[in-house]
Amino acid sequence: MTAYLAKRLAIGLATLLVASLVVFSVLEILPGDPARIMLGLNASPEALEALRSQMGLDRPVVLRYLDWLAGMATGDFGRSYTYSSPVIELVAERVSVSLPLALMALALSTAIAIPVGIFAAARRGRLSDTIAMGIAQVGVAIPNFWFAMLLVYIFAVGLRLVPAGGFPGWGEDWGGVWQGFKALLLPAVALALPQAAILSRVTRSAMLEVMGEDYIRTARAKGLPRRAVLWRHALRNALIPVLTILGLQFAFLLAGTIIIENVFYLPGLGRLIFQAISQRDLIVVEGVVMLLVASIIVINLLVDICYAIADPRLRTGR
Amino acid sequence: MSLLEIENLSLRIGEAPILKDIDLSIAPGEVMGLVGESGSGKSMTALTMMKLLPHAARAQGRVTFDGINILAAPEAAMCRLRGDDIGMVFQEPMTALNPVKTIGEQVAEGIRWHTGVNRPDAEARARAMLERVGLPERQFPLTRYPHELSGGQRQRVVIAIACALKPKLLIADEPTTALDVVLQAQILDLLRDLVDENRMSLLLISHDLAVVADMADRTTIMRHGQVMEAGETARTLTEQVHPYTRRLAEASTHVPARAKPAAGDTSETLLKVEGVTRDYPIRRASLFAKRQSFRAVDDVSFSLARGQSMALVGRSGCGKSTLARMILALDRPTGGSIHFDGETLEDKSEDQLRPSRRHMQVVFQDPYGSFNPRHKVERLVAEPLHLLDEKPDAKRRRELVAEALEQVGLSASDMEKYPHEFSGGQRQRISIARAVITKPKLIVADEPVSALDVSIRAQILDLFADLNRRLGVAYLFITHDLTVARAITDRVMVMHEGRIVEAGDTHAVFDRPKTEAAKALVDAAPDLDRALRMRMERVSGG
Amino acid sequence: MSLDPVFTPAPERHVLVKALANRSFLIGLVITASIALMALLSFFWTPYDITRLQVADRMQGLSLVHPFGTDHMGRDILSMIMIGARNSIAVAIVAVGIGMGLGVPLGTWAAARGGWADEALMRVNDVVFAFPALLTAVMITAIFGPGAVNAIIAIGIFNVPVFARIARAGALSLWPREFILAARASGKGKALITIEHILPNIVSLLLVQGTIQFALGILAEAGLSYLGLGAQPPMPSWGRMLFEAQTRMAVAPHLALFPGLAIVVTVLGLNLLGDGLRDVLDPRLRRER
């Protein structure tokens, strides 16, 4: 088990390193000169030069990469050109919206999809299975931002149950937290449902595949009824492929927040990165992309750990 | 009174008739052998008794077990029977156990379910049962997972699950087919002892007459979903009243007519293997552990003469397939050298190997997996022509394919078909046609008949013998089946844990094995005549 | 005397016949073909010219004259959807093409070569998988500014490891098979075996994955153009139409309805086609009944 986890950890770190190199190079091959973008077109050559050396742009690329990397590791993501404040502060503020949103969506999607998938597999071929999978088939095809717009139209514009957009902050007391939660509810539903549709299909087919295995017949031959076999023998084996998809989905959910935050005007990371692009505030883009990539890599590492827990074949050296 | 009584059982799956008017009865404490070739319906008969049939199956007739009408019994009643009064052992031990549950949990589960005892008590009984089937807790704690056990050990766990509650009837569906002969003998002994101890009835399903002759009091022979003949084992198999029984028995002990190899032929060496070794790295247990390796083939030397037929026998995992691959230059030795027809193989590049490859070809075990399913027979059989220096044109190619097909008893028109249009035996003929098309000097055959039914096996063995005589091709037969080795080879090598422990004239080695490994193989090998003789003695003696 | 059991080969119907008998394939095919035809038709004819702005006719509801209504500049929505289909299809096709064109050779090469090459490919895959298409598009836009090509490159890059993985897994499961060993014993090299034996046997896997990635590509393109990172005006695209509809939802919800439905129907059609293809081409994966 330790060997397996050590290997996955090493791979995760290496991936992070390569990813950082990619992000840094993207900034490097950029056609514009950051100093010029900051000072505008009319800046004097002297002022430009002064800013360049202040920003360290006159130093060799390798050194600047290492500095940048060291900065990242110690939480120094540089300063935003447009907000004139450290990127880390901007990010910290925005994470308090994006992270709860992504986690709510993930929890919602898992809580809906896995029971539905198991239920459909257990009732394979019956009407309830056909209906559930029909809905899932359509759900997979719905773009989350369009679904979000429909939700806004129905629940915010029509029924006035929740705010149509914006985020009041988490507030000081439980009332404030409730307001914040309400503001994230529709976005989380919009993010979660298309993912839940995919996940329920995967869960169902994983369950059906496992139900055809020889060991299921062995369990039936022991005298266990169909239902007990499903819960005791099929489920844990079926969860292994479901975990893979869950890991991949987290990446999609994170990316999805960029779109959904724009639909609901939520001040999260997605909105930050989007505004930073239109203002060509590349330090911010770089910092946020790095953060998102790092969290995807961490999630994949967690999935690998879950694998080892779910599948004893990974735990022993073989 | 019978424990199990099947009357007029018919079964359809969808539109296809599977079983027709099956009658079968098993008395308490009796061992019933159920024999038949693949597709004869013997497994479906067993699954009907357990009521574990596929969804689309519809059964008619009567199946009475211990006074209960099985076909009419509700699912809840069947759940009470399964695992408690009827236990079942399956063919494939590698997949029959849940990979994410410990063996202790899997044995204890049925005990808890049926008796309602608490977890520690169930575990205590599971422990005792595992100990009884030969998996003592010191070496095999209950917390082991299936992947940490070998195939034979896993089959013991499956038997422990099936026998944990001392069922009245144990159904064993080809319980040893996936195991090598030595393991087969051990598992059959275990089953026999368990049945005797607990006064269980046993329904033993097998394709192997010798196994059934050895184990069963009475035998039922099935074919095409019908019972051909049933009766007391020794009498049924010796008197052979039904013509199908006679054909089956003859095919099981079939020895192809073979000319003695001419003395002049054997003097010239075709293949010479010297000190060949093959190591495989073992994945390290931790990042800092020393890199270890597993020696699959250990310092093997032998030589094979032109036109000679040699067998390489041994238990599964003894390294015989690895050795074969190195001879075929599909794998490279870690050490030692291989000379074929005057050329060394181990140091050649793929390009330099072409002349040698032309003169050695291969026939594999699985007649289903040996062909690209998307190619027609013409293209499949013609594949080795790639090795000729001068590529034949389309017309010549078809002539060569036609010739090869006719040599193996197929017709030239078969070249237009796809492999799925042929039966298993015919596919193995196509496989042989592909091997002979370049007129090779050596054919390496890796278990070429072990996936075939006995009757087809006899025909393919005849074909091998015939080609040896007509084309003078030498064989290296890799097999775990001593009957096959005895039938078709002049010399034999016994391989054990990577080494060749005994070699010599086939009959001499098998009649008087000298080493432990060879003795174990010979003693374990099922032999129809010997089994019948012993059964007759037992009957007449008491 | 033959003891060979009477062997009647199963009547192997032609793949096409089997496919057309599959409900999901048939529905998927009809939908996908209709959308593709609609996109083709838009090159020659649309109900209205969408480059002419008719501000007097803006934001009309559904009518016989404009079946799907008009937008805030008086353009006919049906015509815009027809032309928008071109953009969606083109982006998705090129992105799947990039993914297959690079991914399949890489994946089969890694499987044939094994060892370090295989390990290296898998590690590169890990890196690419850490950049969802949207993030890549964001970075590309940050460098080169927005445009339809960004969307293609971003989605295409993400498709490469997807196809590499599928091709590698398929090839790895084939290499130890006996027919491959027989081909090696016939002196065929790894490249030739890959072309003759591996590729034809993983085509069905790739086709099924292709339809899935095609559908995902359309969804991703819609998302990118919704954010303004994809096709730029005046080129109509479904995602862009949704963006423009958003602020006018309260007064004219139909503006958001039809472009959204167009995406849903197209993606649904492709997914049905993929499910059907898988059932037809790979009987092992077919659901019982």
Automatic annotation (TrEMBL), chain A:
Localization of this protein: Cell membrane
Lineage: superkingdom: Bacteria
Chief localisation class: membrane
Membrane topology type: Multi-pass membrane protein
Organism: Chelativorans salis
Domain ABC transmembrane type-1 intervals: 95-303
InterPro entries assigned: BPD_transp_1_N (IPR045621), MetI-like (IPR000515), MetI-like_sf (IPR035906)
Membrane-spanning ranges: 101-122, 134-156, 176-199, 238-260, 288-310
Sorted UniProt keywords: Cell membrane, Membrane, Transmembrane, Transmembrane helix, Transport
Name of the protein this chain belongs to: ABC transporter permease
Homology family: Belongs to the binding-protein-dependent transport system permease family.
UniProt-listed PROSITE patterns: ABC_TM1 (PS50928)
TrEMBL record, chain B:
PROSITE patterns: ABC_TRANSPORTER_1 (PS00211), ABC_TRANSPORTER_2 (PS50893)
Domain ABC transporter: 4-249, 282-522
Keywords: ATP-binding, Nucleotide-binding, Transport
Alphabetical list of Gene3D superfamilies matching this protein: P-loop containing nucleotide triphosphate hydrolases (3.40.50.300)
Pfam families found in the cross-reference section: ABC_tran (PF00005)
Keyword Cell membrane carried by entry: no
Molecular-function annotations in GO: ATP binding
Homology family: Belongs to the ABC transporter superfamily.
Name used for this protein in its record: Dipeptide ABC transporter ATP-binding protein
Species name: Chelativorans salis
UniProt lineage: Bacteria, Pseudomonadati, Pseudomonadota, Alphaproteobacteria, Hyphomicrobiales
From TrEMBL, chain C:
Domain ABC transmembrane type-1, first and last residues per copy: 85-274
Main location: membrane
Pfam families the record matches: BPD_transp_1
Topology relative to the membrane: Multi-pass membrane protein
Subcellular location per the Swiss-Prot or TrEMBL entry: Cell membrane
Keywords: Cell membrane, Membrane, Transmembrane, Transmembrane helix, Transport
Keyword Repeat included in the entry's annotation: no
Gene3D superfamilies linked to this entry: MetI-like (1.10.3720.10)
InterPro entries noted in UniProt: BP-dependent_transpt_permease, MetI-like, MetI-like_sf
Highest taxon of source: Bacteria
Bilayer-crossing regions: 25-45, 89-111, 131-158, 202-229, 249-274
SUPFAM superfamilies: MetI-like
PANTHER family: OLIGOPEPTIDE TRANSPORT SYSTEM PERMEASE PROTEIN APPC (PTHR43386), PEPTIDE ABC TRANSPORTER PERMEASE PROTEIN (PTHR43386:SF25)
Family: Belongs to the binding-protein-dependent transport system permease family.
Protein's name according to its UniProt entry: ABC transporter permease
Organism: Chelativorans salis
Source species taxonomy: Bacteria, Pseudomonadati, Pseudomonadota, Alphaproteobacteria, Hyphomicrobiales
